[in-house]
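Thread: quick sanity check before group meeting

JM: Hey all, I'm pulling together slides for Thursday and realized we never actually wrote out the predicted structure for the chain we discussed last week. Dropping the sequence here so it's in one place. If anyone has concerns about the input, flag it before I start.
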Amino acid sequence: MQGQHRERILGLDVYFPYQPYSVQSAYMTKVIQALNDKSNALLESPTGTGKTLCLLCASLAWLKDEREKWAAKKAKDPEYQGGPSPKIIYTSRTHSQLAQV
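JM (edit): ok, ran it. Output follows.
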């Protein structure tokens, strides 16, 4: 994608609007690890470090990969229904932050 940086994280292509800082790459890695493990994650980072953008970019990359896997399984076996839809819960302590998301 033009105008975006592609970061390879845990085997997924994560598209980010620019070259992520190391703290952002680490955050996205933890998001993807939690999604892969189907576990909860409580992640925090100081204000202004791009948490929301990292969460969205990593989650979308993971979801795209999951949909591709599902489609491949469905192509091999038309009866395949897949598992439950994953849930990602985003919380914030400010209304303005929630409105941005």
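AS: nice. The chain has a mean pLDDT of 86. Residues 5-100 form one domain.
JM: adding both to the slides.
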